[in-house]
Amino acid sequence: MKRTLNIILAAAMSMALFSGCNDKNVSKYIPDGSTADSTTNSAVDTNSSTGGTPTKTTEALDTVVTDYKYDFWSNDYDLNIITDKYVYYDDVLTADGTGSHFCQDYKIDLQSGEMTPLCNLPGCDHGYTATDCESFIPRAAIGDKYYDLKRTEIFTSNKIIDESGNVVFENKFASDIALKYAEQRMEEYDSERKKYDEDDVKYSIHSILADEKNLYIVGYNYIYAYDVETKQTTEPMIIDEDFWCDILGTDMENKRVYFQNEVFEVFIADLANQTVTKVYDGRVDDLKFYNGKMYYSRILPYDIEDPNSHAVAQIFEADPDFKNEKMLIDDCANVFNIKDDKIFYFDPYNGEENQQTMLYSYDMKTGESKELFTVDNLVRIITAPHIDRIFLEGIHNEDNGISTSQNTIIVSLRPDGSDVWTNEIKNQETLY
Questions:
Q1: Which pLDDT tens digit goes with each residue over 37-58?
Q2: pLDDT higher for 252 or 58?
């Protein structure tokens, strides 16, 4: 099972990602150095009812970077990594003005704010199955060495590569669940007449984590360590014998990875002690750790067949074993992030009429929430402990009377709501 994508991302980007981004009639090459106008305000000039759009021009983010340490994936939703020099964005959505949409991977310079596409290969569609695509977004890092999964002709891979494209590890372990799902998937690929490497399916790596010396290989329902120096591996830890499991969140400081299976049971894989423990029974969405506490969201039950019903989430605080649970925020989206004792969150998705989404900050000391400003179709909030900014991703829809264009908006601000910087990527050159 792949855990359901967050409600905002699925609702706002479904048409673009599943129809436009796979439109083979449009070449998706974006020239190196393509940029859009950037804007900023030294203080947020916003109206709580209409939101505020920054208007001053700037060319810099001027991010303060301190005590850099690689920031691991906090969950399995998004692939956006922040190093000491860049923030990486996957699937930045743009349009060519005719209604054809495409995606590209970008990196943003933390100091200059320059956005640079990660692939300049003419005709490349930048999809995961584009084996020649030059995009490289580091999924794991040890020191100054970065790692990603090798691209294949299908949406899975059993090989890890470094920045130079060299294969540094190849998974050859398959659990019973892996073999079961691999057989099903290979039948699907055969029926679609697709080429594939059977090993990529059978030994598929779903995620990579890292600490000071190990890469952690995460498959269908297991995890194990690979020492990059000694080339030795530990025995795989089976999370659940009966179900596919996904990463729910990581607490790498304490060498613990949280998994959730298909029936919404939560397990902790203790990497230091090589133990797996079931700790919770119930659906959990976004999961993060801050100052010894655990923070997570849950979507409340709703009628998916009722057009007037929509998904609403709540955000909770608890001990790392889910004890002493306390609800902090009600009536929100299931995506959030934490910075400087504040939880940054936004409105639930309320249908097509709600194009603008309010960003809030919740003060963990006072329990008070504050409106910051609106972002068109806000879908992601990312940050890292070593920077003094948070980054947002939204989708701007524009109807020109013939077609609707959808462009990604990147917004960044300081945790106190000041020094807002925005960049909308739009109308990039396409080659036919």
A1: 333 333 333 333 333 333 334 4
A2: 252
Task: Round to whole Å and give the CA distance between 107 and 87.
Answer: 6
Mean pLDDT of the chain: 80
Residue 189: phi and psi, rounded to 5, are -65, -40
Q: Give the residue from 53, 54, 61 showing the smallest Cα distance to 85.
A: 61
- Cα(225)–Cα(218) distance, rounded to whole angstroms? 9
Using the predicted structure, report yes or no on whether residue 151 has a pLDDT greater than 80.
yes
d(C-alpha 31, C-alpha 124), whole Å: 11
The residues with which 95 forms a beta bridge, in sequence order, are 101
Percent of the chain with pLDDT over 90: 45
Long-range contacts of 94-97 (CB under 8 A, 24+ apart): 94/30, 94/407, 94/408, 94/425, 94/426, 94/427, 94/428, 95/20, 95/405, 95/406, 95/407, 95/426, 95/427, 96/26, 96/427, 96/428, 96/430, 97/400, 97/405, 97/427
Per DSSP bridges, beta strands 256-261 and 56-57 are: unpaired
Closest Cα partner for 333 from 318, 316, 349, 317? 349
| Structural contact between residues 296 and 258, judged by C-beta atoms closer than 8 angstroms | no
Q: How far apart are CA 319 and CA 184, in angstroms?
A: 39
Q: For position 3, what pLDDT does the model report?
A: 40
**What is the model's pLDDT at position 94?**
78
- Backbone phi, psi, residue 258, to 5°: -100, 130
Which of 165, 163, 169 lies closest to 146 in space, CA to CA?
163
Query: What type of residue is 409?
Result: I
The two tokens of residue 166 are 């060299």
Find residue 218's DSSP bridge partners.
Answer: 207, 223
How many angstroms separate the CA atoms of 239 and 268, rounded? 8
